[in-house]
């Protein structure tokens, strides 16, 4: 994600007036400001077979807030978001909407080098409550206890040659205990597929992993993924469109882990596209909560990159995985 952020910063500087180039002291950190939640107007409520149920814009002056690139659905109607600065946000969601239930450090402190705490992916074992966290800059994975303590870190051998700016972007623990990790980028700009590793068990155990490549639609990159009850995996892919201001489009794919082969190309199918007039931004996190009727509640959160022309959006959607109306890649 770092090259994208540099482009965004450059575009923002171009838009600034010359008078802003004046040094000023940084204000003290604000760790007390609340999160404001504003419902989004939804003129369009469908993306192919996916229903858009509700959406919100989240804002806050709190220094913990923003930059969310990973999302988990926890028990009790809670969502956990993690940011590229090692911060976390808990949201309790009810019929009235989301309410912030806590913000803080998930990895490191305010003095820690951002390169070491750049969280881009999370996954969870529902049986133990353990959470695994993927770091982009360090190409590392942490395992946390259910109370978010006791971090154990590993830098898997199969991930060490990944670009330090785009590693461990998407990660999922499968129900059978295997793990899939995808990179967002590659060392060669000409590559059209993205490095992936399939671990036979918890990567903290030090297994070598089976390498493969993931095929995304042209100019799209994988940014998150989550397993659904039938065993398949939803993969969130995102495209950056250069402009003033820049814009983003998102697609949601479904892929079967059974199709992964060592050294092979893992392919999926696009089931929905998200672009204007749907609420659009830099969606980087996705979570799933099964419903009693067999449908799934899907949640997406966007990474605002702490840029003035981006927003933190949260969408609640609903999808029947048994639906046959799919949009081909």
TrEMBL record:
SUPFAM superfamilies, alphabetized: Calcium-dependent phosphotriesterase
Alphabetical list of InterPro entries matching this protein: Phytase-like_dom, UCP031900
Pfam families hit by this protein: Phytase-like
Sequence ranges assigned to domain Phytase-like in this UniProt record: 64-305
Name this polypeptide is given: Esterase-like activity of phytase family protein
């Amino acid at each position: 994600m770092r090259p994208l952020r540099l482009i965004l910063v450059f575009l923002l500087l171009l838009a600034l007036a010359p008078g802003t180039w004046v040094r000023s002291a940084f204000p003290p950190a604000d760790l007390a400001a609340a999160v404001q939640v504003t419902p989004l107007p939804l003129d369009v409520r469908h993306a192919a077979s996916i229903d858009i149920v509700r959406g919100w814009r989240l804002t806050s002056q709190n220094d913990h807030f923003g930059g969310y690139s990973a999302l988990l659905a926890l028990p009790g109607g809670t969502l956990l978001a993690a940011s590229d600065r090692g911060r976390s946000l808990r949201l309790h969601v009810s019929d009235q909407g989301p309410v912030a239930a806590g913000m803080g450090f998930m990895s490191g402190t305010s003095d820690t080098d951002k390169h070491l705490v750049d969280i881009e992916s999370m996954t969870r074992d529902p049986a133990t409550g353990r959470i695994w966290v993927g770091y982009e800059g360090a190409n590392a994975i942490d395992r946390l206890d259910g109370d978010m303590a006791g971090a154990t870190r590993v830098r898997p051998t199969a991930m060490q040659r990944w670009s330090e700016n785009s590693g461990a972007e998407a990660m999922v623990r499968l129900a059978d205990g295997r793990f899939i990790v995808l990179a967002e980028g590659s060392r060669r700009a000409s590559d059209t597929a993205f490095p992936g590793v399939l671990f036979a068990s918890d990567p903290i155990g030090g297994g070598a992993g089976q390498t493969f490549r993931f095929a995304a639609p042209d100019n799209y990159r994988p940014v998150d993924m989550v397993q659904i009850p039938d065993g398949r995996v939803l993969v969130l892919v995102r495209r950056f469109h250069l402009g003033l201001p820049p814009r983003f489009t998102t697609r949601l794919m479904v892929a079967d882990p059974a199709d992964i082969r060592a050294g092979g190309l893992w392919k999926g199918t696009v089931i929905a596209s998200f672009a204007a007039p749907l609420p659009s931004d830099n969606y980087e996190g996705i979570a799933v909560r099964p419903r009693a009727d067999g449908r799934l509640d899907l949640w997406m959160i966007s990474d605002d990159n702490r840029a003035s022309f981006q927003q933190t959006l949260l969408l609640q959607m609903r999808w029947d995985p048994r639906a046959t109306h799919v949009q081909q890649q």
